[in-house]
Amino acid sequence: MTNFKIFKYANPAKFLYLCEKTFIYLVLLTIIFLSFGLYQGFFNSPEDYQQGNLVRIMYVHVPSAWMALMIYSSIAVASCMYLINKHLLANIFCKSASLIGASFTLIAIVTGSIWGKPTWGTWWVWDARITSMLVLFFLYLGHMTIFNFSENTTKSGQAAALLAILGFVNIPIIKFSVDWWNTLHQPASVIKLSGPTIHSSMLTPLLVTALGFFFYFLVVLIIRMRSEITNEKINNLSFTD
Amino acid sequence: MTPKKKRFYIIFSAFSFFCFIVGTFLIILQDNILFFYTPSEILQKNLKQNEKVRLGGLVEENSVVRNNIKINFTITDLKKNIEVSYEGILPDLFREGQGVIVNGYLKNNIFEASEVLAKHDENYMPPEIKKKLELK
């Protein structure tokens, strides 16, 4: 297990060095991908044959939902690393990523609701996809709350990690809810075995925006992890002398 | 067994056990999680008097009859059909051949809907491409 290259960066000092070197490039990538993707999506891509201009909400809704699932999965993996390998940096990652994931979940739910009213004819229904996404939002909130229970991040991190790992069962449920049950939400259009059922003129801006969202996540993550590491250092200072 | 391996097995078994419980619940609650039933499923169910259900399927071609604000149409799953009557505002996507979900009661083989929702499918394309596909 110890041969994994990633564990080299389990050392906070090495991690901070890596962040410092890559931060500016990540900011640039975020700006380039987001501005190009969103411009293409909002102004330069065709209308949909059914929804017309409403389809443009998709360029925000779908990447947010992907990020929400991706971030939760990464928190679950990092939680395993923390509980099994006791890597403190993994715990700091979990604490820092949670709020970002919760925000993306909320964006996905709200944009979906705004899209649902004119398309489906309702703001909200309790179908399997929408309900499981709401459960994900509450899992994120619970995860953040546990971290706030105590000042001691190492201790509260263990409880939060357990919640994150058990809650991971919700991720495949969200992904496959549209296949397992009858739902109002449409089935997957991009990530599926038979290939995307979305025209390339809409798929390209969607994927570019998704990459932009991903780099944005990394930028915010680095900022939050940096301050969290500093926070830990302050907490560990002893004022004996 | 090293402590690390022991922690791994504890977490692994706890997660598996939890998945098993959640999976069992989902299978037991299967019927409640379904958002709507198809016409075949509704006709097979023994619905109680005045039991509110959701019926979903395609609006059958040439079945929509408008009479002032009253609208009648047939919902089909290509095996069984159910006639629906509805009074109210329809969503923009409502049209013949579209997937819809209606909420209401089945009375004397006619479904009296109090709400009509349109379903969007997973295909996204510009109108020109759609026209080309239809010509083929």
- Helical stretch tally of chain A: 7
* Helical stretch tally of chain B: 4
CATH arch. level architecture of the largest domain in chain B = Beta Barrel
Mean pLDDT of chain B: 87
Rg over CA atoms of chain B: 22 Å
Query: How many individual β-strands of chain A?
Result: 0
Q: What would you give as the CATH superfamily of the largest domain in chain B?
A: Nucleic acid-binding proteins
Bulk shape of chain B: flat
Q: Uncertain spans of chain A, ≥5 residues at pLDDT below 50?
A: none
Q: Beta-sheet strand percentage of chain A?
A: under 5%
CATH structural fold name of the largest domain in chain B: OB fold (Dihydrolipoamide Acetyltransferase, E2P)
Distance between the termini of chain B: 65 Å
Rounded Rg of chain A: 20 Å
- Across the major sheet of chain B, the strand order is 1-3-4-6-5
The main pleated sheet of chain A reads as: none
* Number of β-strand runs of chain B: 6
Text of the CATH class of the largest domain in chain B: Mainly Beta
Helix content of chain A: over 70%
How does the major sheet of chain B shape up? Answer: 5 strands, mixed, barrel
In short:
Helix content of chain A is 74%, strand content 0%. By secondary structure, chain A is mostly helical.
Folded structure, characterized:
The complex is a heterodimer of chains A (about 240) and B (about 140). Chain A is mainly α and about 240 residues long. Chain A has one domain (about 20-185, about 200-230). Chain A has helices at about 10-45, 60-85, 90-120, 130-150, 155-165, 170-180, 200-235. The model of chain A has no long low-confidence stretch (mean pLDDT about 90). With about 140 residues, chain B is of the alpha+beta class. Chain B folds into two domains: about 1-35; about 35-120, OB fold (Dihydrolipoamide Acetyltransferase, E2P) (Beta Barrel), CATH 2.40.50.140. Helix content of chain B is about 35%, strand content about 30%. Chain B contains four helices and six strands; from the N terminus they run αααββββββα. Chain B has a five-stranded mixed beta barrel with strand order 1-3-4-6-5. In chain B, a hairpin with a 2-residue loop joins strand 5 and strand 6 (about 110-120). Chain B is flat. The interface of A and B includes residues 120 and 121 of A.
